Amino acid sequence: MDADELRALQAPLKERYKADAGSARITLRASGAVDDAKIACNIETGRAIASAGLHPATGGSGLELCSGDMLLEALVACAGVTLKAVATAIGVDLARADVRAEGDLDFRGTLGVDKAAAVGFEAIRLKFDIVSEAPQEKIDQLLKLTERYCVVLQTLARPPQLTATVERSGPGT
Question: 123 φ, ψ to 5°?
């Protein structure tokens, strides 16, 4: 896909969203079912069922996906797609681009060993390895725009309002 094809694809969407801001607002959903037999949650991905479980550092077998890894994978996927879309839009030819994310965790927090230890990532580093003949100014612009338009990166940088509720059904309700 080139810049003209991308613009042509996105132009009607942009026009609709300008004319009707409400049409740009959608709700994405994810769901899963807690496994009855093991400490795991089966996530419906749209393509297959992914089984997420405890990380080995918290007693997991390592056979299931770790949700922390999945968070980093979502960041890499979103950043990679955004990087490619931005590169296409601004005319930066990428001979190759690799994206990596790494995050630091202190499992004492998750396991309740130390109340002062954070639960969750203390730091996340997103790295792009780019091979391109574009001038440095264009690469700088590419990074700036990728950071600006990457949904997952922006969600982590500016956490949304978050709520957790319980809905009871079945026996005992």
Answer: -155, 145
The total of other beta-carbon atoms located within 10 Å of residue 63's CB is 10
Q: Which residues pair with 53 in a beta bridge?
A: 40, 66
pLDDT at position 92 over 80: yes
In single-letter form, the type of residue at position 89 comes to A
pLDDT 10s digits, 114-141: 999 999 999 999 999 999 999 999 999 9
Q: What is the mean pLDDT of residues 84-106?
A: 95
Give one DSSP letter per residue of 40-97, joined into a string. EEEEE-SSSEEEEE--GGGT--SSSEEHHHHHHHHHHHHHHHHHHHHHHHHT---SEE
Residues 6 or more apart whose CB falls under 8 angstroms from that of 111 comprise 58
